[in-house]
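Worked example

This section walks through a single chain of length 167. The input is the sequence exactly as stored; nothing has been trimmed or padded.
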Amino acid sequence: VTLHLLALCYNQTMIKILMIEDDVELGQLLQNALEKEQIETLLTCTPLEGLVALQNENFDALVLDLSLPQIDGLEICRIVRETFPSLAIIISSARSDMNDKEMGFARGADDFLPKPYDPRELAFRLRAILRRGTTNGTHHEATCQTFCIDEERHTVTRADRELRLTM
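Given that input, the structure is written out below as tokens.
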């Protein structure tokens, strides 16, 4: 029952992601498609803009292209994983040979989605990864109607009363 309740609450919570994609047209297409899937997306076109955004805002996940100006996406993946160890990272790249995939996972990616793909698949993958736990190392609390689930303390409250649940 508890997991079902959590799933219901989670599905109603807006997901917020950062996308680092230097192809502005593709980035805007993905951003628009993800917003229809209730996924708020901040699009940045350079790795440095993306790193600044990560420092200034909380995100549930990072969608990262590999072929970027200034700094290669694999290096950005490594930096982000070291700095934000629990942030979900999905690599979204046309570079899809096995060496790039191996390096992406070795540097901390949670998933690798080769381009081209249907934007809904990206939404499915984001939800699947985020279902597994909290993100970005912050205290995560999901609210749903009159229920409040505190994952850090493993409690559920309703109308400010803690509910006693069995495992």
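What to look for: The two ends are 9 Å apart (CA to CA).
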